Amino acid sequence: MNIAVFNLLGFLALGAAFAFAFLGALEWNVRLYCGLSGGRLAIFIHALRWVGAAVVFTAAAKFGPGALLSVLIGFQLAKVYTVRGRALTEGAAR
Fold first, then answer.
1. Which one is predicted more confidently, 94 or 23?
2. Is the pTM here over 0.70, yes or no?
């Protein structure tokens, strides 16, 4: 295998790992917004998620379009996996 393929797989894994962190923080963020306390913390977590996204995608873009695309694909794959997994577990609980 070419070394570039390993780099792209690494960026794919980076995108997936960031997606799991982003979506976990989103779930925490929703719980804070829906609760009666934690308004300031919710706003901080919300801003932190978007700053993190900007940093990760900007850093990937500096490595070229292939790296940026790999991070995006990894992010989207992890998002689909997480959302479908959540839907399946919540549907089974009903």
1. 23
2. yes
